[in-house]
Amino acid sequence: MNRIFSAPIALLVPLVCLIGCLATNPPPATPVTGDPKKLPKVQVVENGESRARPEECRAILVGPGINQPDPFPGYAGFVGWESPVRLKNGTWLVGFNAGYWHASAPTPLRYSAKSLEEYRKMGMPADIVAPTGGRAMIIRSTDEGRTWSKPETLIDTPADDRHPAFLELRNGTILCCFFTYSGEAENADFTKSPELATRVNLIRSFDGGRTWEKRPQVMQTPFASDETDGPMVQLKDGSVVIPMNGRPKSGPPEQAGLLRSTDRGRTWNWLSTVKAAHDLVETTVAELADGRLVMMARPEGDIWWSSDQGKTWTEPVTFGMRLFAPSLTLLRDGTLVCLHGSYAPGHSGLRVIFSRDGGQTWIAPAKDHGFLVDTSYGYGKAMELKDGSLFVSYIATGGHHTGDAQQNAVRCIRFRIRADHSGIDLLPAPNRKQ
What predicted TM-score, i.e. pTM, was given to this entire model? Predict the structure, then answer.
């Protein structure tokens, strides 16, 4: 999930979700509709993997000895949870989290003794001083990714500010959603301890991303705790939706849903909730060419569709590919791309699958995993460039071990889906030194 402790590691610790802005009396879980007989499937293709290798194409945006943030209380080398956007004026932005570990909660820490012991065993530093935890930072490029500015603080709330993701609206306003994490006790009762819950926040920029609102909006949802990886999507009707997941007040499993704004992000209303018999987390959404919405979630690779702009949904179904951190991108030619982390034994890393029919059929090299983008931890986000290739920013490691956290990096790479849709080709990152 976009969960704090949510990745293919031996010790998985549950996390919580976030909350939002300005809705009163959110509706109950939205009914789902659809034909369960029309299950999505995987179309396996041979020889679809890139001939170029990831190590021949990747580059570092922020990492050891490369464009690192200036020191601040709570920063010990960890960078990650990133997302890019290309603005209409040609500027590229990448937002990311900087802190001391996989999850950089503010100190003094408020974990239970059991959780704290587990996290210390993973590699969380013992003597860190981080009054506001990690913070969200931003870098920019004005030469199509060849060079990047020094990291600047995007927002620093009293909590750990995670996974900033961007959307530029048609009028030039830029929205940034992120979620805050204060450090939760395992199985915490967030109705009694709301300060431990994760929360979805939003800030705006009206000058091309140079300055941002200092006071974020906190989203209002029906959940006790909620979160989002983003990115947001502006629909054809001009409204904006934020995909998210959250823990119901009644307890697990976690559910998915959408927030919607019709006034350029000034106010938000809860649109719909989707349930399954298992967790639906790290949700992602895209609007298809025919106007339908499609969402996906971790961990079972659930997918579901809406034909009424997100008010009602088909039943979540799986197509046999377990994954984490899915991220959907609709290309100009109508291809639906899903970056994801892989659970498949022997095929971990950041991977990609794609569909020509709105997510009903997914093209992949195998039934249980996608084409390799990089042998990394994952959590990639993509943006389509003018030449049809995709620029991807992603995290090198999860930063669970102390050394990994101190030496972590935000990487980037490019790839192109072949014209005949038979696979992908990796391409050098714009800032890669030849």
Answer: 0.92
